[in-house]
Design a protein that fits this description.
Four Helix Bundle (Hemerythrin (Met), subunit A); 2 domains; four-stranded mixed beta sheet; globular; 278 residues
Length: 278
């Protein structure tokens, strides 16, 4: 399972404040899709173990609720966030990650769903009034408010994927994946550095087919390449699928090495997923 929400991948573009609204709209839509997925679950199903073992569906939503809550504070009251962050981390990483899960198990499915809805509402409101380029603190380097919104979108989608997999449901991909795919491209160097591996001197061309049929291309002049469906690329960089279980076409040694270690989220190296195909 991933350890912390992503903090990598800030955009270099200049944004007027009004430009936060598209980020907010995409995040709200992702929230709503996941809410529809879990709201009708019975109590026993909330206890289903997801592929991020031993986390259950309840644990996944508890994790999202807590970090949506923390992200809202980071935008509205950075000084308070920094103070509370130090207290949060004082007991070590494992205790820090487990605390939201323990709270969720204590209050149960209805409590967790209410917690998450309240937290994400506050988060969206905080983003609406934010300057996209204003730096906000997080559990790692500060980042732009716009990047924080993309990170929360990525986390919601990725943990939602764990829940969908536990339920045996295939979600329809949306063009919101473009933000996650771009974050995946931007975290190329991070994926190697996080494992103590030298960053390759060349980049990788990424050409993805979006859900609406358009092509999304990055690093168009690079020789090595990754090509295929956008949702499968996002599954790999969020470590929800092994590259061998996708239809992505990987050409070049650098591209293959990247897809084996790709990690869009921050924190220690994630274990990824074992290949399910022979």
């Amino acid at each position: 399972m991933d350890r912390l929400p992503a903090t990598i991948g800030a955009t270099d573009q200049e944004h007027p404040i009004s430009d936060m609204l598209p980020f907010v709209a995409d995040l709200a839509a992702e929230h709503a899709d996941l809410d529809r997925l879990v709201t009708a679950l019975d109590i026993d199903t909330w206890g289903e173990v997801t592929p991020a073992e031993p986390w259950t569906i309840l644990d996944q939503i508890s994790h999202l609720a807590y970090f949506d809550e923390r992200a809202a504070v980071s935008v509205t009251d950075p000084d308070r966030f920094r103070s509370e962050m130090n207290a949060d981390l004082a007991g070590g990483m494992e205790q820090f990650i487990q605390a939201p899960l323990l709270r969720g198990r204590d209050i149960g499915p209805s409590g967790v769903l209410a917690w998450w809805r309240t937290a994400r509402s506050a988060l969206l409101e905080s983003f609406r009034g934010a300057d996209p380029d204003a730096k906000v603190p997080w559990y790692g380097p500060d980042m732009k408010a716009s990047s924080s919104a993309v990170a929360r979108l990525m986390e919601t989608w990725a943990h939602g994927q764990d829940i969908a997999d536990a339920l045996g449901i295939r979600r329809a991909p949306t063009d919101r994946l473009r933000r996650i795919a771009e974050l995946g491209v931007k975290t190329f160097s991070w994926s190697f550095l996080n494992r103590g591996i030298d960053v390759p001197g060349e980049r990788v061309r990424v050409a993805l087919r979006g859900p609406s049929g358009g092509m999304w291309v990055w690093n168009d002049e690079a020789a090595a390449s990754v090509t295929g469906p956008a949702d499968e690329f996002c599954l790999v960089v969020t470590q929800r699928r092994h590259i061998d279980d996708t239809h992505l076409v990987v050409e070049g040694d650098v591209a293959r090495r990247w897809m084996e270690v790709a990690q869009v989220f921050a924190g220690p190296p994630g274990p990824g997923r074992r290949p399910q195909t022979g």
